[in-house]
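Memo to structure team: turn this sequence into structure tokens by end of day. - J.P.
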Amino acid sequence: MTQQKARPLHWWSERQLALLVERLKHARGKWLAAWVDDYRTPTFNIPSIVCRVAHEHGAPVADSTQWHALYPSLEVDGENQVWVSSYRTNEWVAQLLLKPSIAASRKNSIFAAELSEEALADCISEIKNALSIQSEVDSVFDRISMETGEIPVQQYYPWSGAVNVLFPLNDEFSLTLHIGPGRATALLSSTSGAVSVQPAAPLAALKDALSDKTTHLRVELLPVDISVGNLQSLTIGDVLVVPHLLTQQVHVKTAQGEPLCGAYLGQAQGQKAIELTKLARASQGPNE
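Reply from structure team:
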């Protein structure tokens, strides 16, 4: 059997996710103010940004939607990566910038394509800044990594720490982001907002983590019957004869009383000892 690698468990509160929403909201407002003429008009409708833990979103559907990594995989691992869905993105950005009628008439024009690509690249740049992903590359084609691929399925497990984001740019078009657990942890756990993309120290195996810890065990012998009068007259130094034979198994329990194993009384290195065994099954009746 292959032993799975241990992984940390993370869960984000509504307050923590709300702080992430504020970071992204500021980035979106900055981009809209720079690219959309009627952004500040009363008629401009823009839904709220939604952040939630990834497993509530469900695993991504394997269809024509493509996920682009926002950072080259040679520089960050999957735990610290951020992906953006790019399905029909340029088409929607062109409509947002040029209005539907103009966008339709210039659907195949070089101008519309270059404008939408530049606007999208600038939007991604603002998102990177909000998520503390620093990039020195200015090329419009390099602002989004051209790497595509599937998001690791384990990032959709409960307690993974990954976060999904619905990032609307107007009432019809939204980007979808997936923030890897390492980057989400750095963003939501840090008070300074600085993010380190260095891999976290590996978790220790369970037996290694507990190897130097101590615990308490209870060893129960057969009960002793004693009258109430004799019990009340007991004093320090009195000896009770225990009707427990060395050939009889004793019960070893945790400090909380949970059965752990069986044992036999014995001696080792001049001290009283017990030999641990499998817990004996309860005696069965004649009809069992």
